[in-house]
Amino acid sequence: MTEVQNFGRQLGDFLGGVFADAAGGGAGVFRPDPQAEIEVRQLLNDLQTAFAEKNADAIVDSLAEEFTTYELTSAEGHAVTITEKAAMREYLDTLFPADGETQNKSVSVSQVLASSTIGLTREDGDVVIARTDGTFEHQPLRASAVAIRTAEGWKWLHWHMSAAAPRFRVNANGVRIPLDGAPATGTPVAD
């Protein structure tokens, strides 16, 4: 058995235990903890608030000392992988909207599973940036993360975000326009 095959088997065994226990069946390795789930869900809510408020300090403070990776697809379509807190702070300076613009994330699906020591999260949502020109830029996304309980409380160990659909922009009437904001005709965005 190769190292990759062995890792795949171990991961499959782990996930089988996670989902068997979460569904109330089987004697898996994962023991759900309802209070831990509430705490990890709050960590996720705090993270969303920090992004909306452009609070880089709160975001970086939410990372575990053992933080491994933050992965996402950039606006330009290439992979971004961050493995250090200092690099995360530097990246956040480029991520946040310009002055006078706001960023909100709506979450359509949020799942949290947690034991007393580890939490797993999954989200589907849409980051919406209200631009100063009155338009709104949307980035549908999917995210998953791993949190761990530390001496200081719950912290993020690993984070992954990817585009769930292409970015798009709409004017104040909900009509799609080019991403550069130039006036154009388009079709209304469905609710």
TrEMBL record:
SnoaL-like domain sequence ranges: 40-165
Pfam family, one: SnoaL_3
Gene3D superfamilies documented for this protein: 3.10.450.50
Lineage: Bacteria, Bacillati, Actinomycetota, Actinomycetes, Micromonosporales
Designated name of the protein: Nuclear transport factor 2 family protein
Protein source organism: Micromonospora aurantiaca
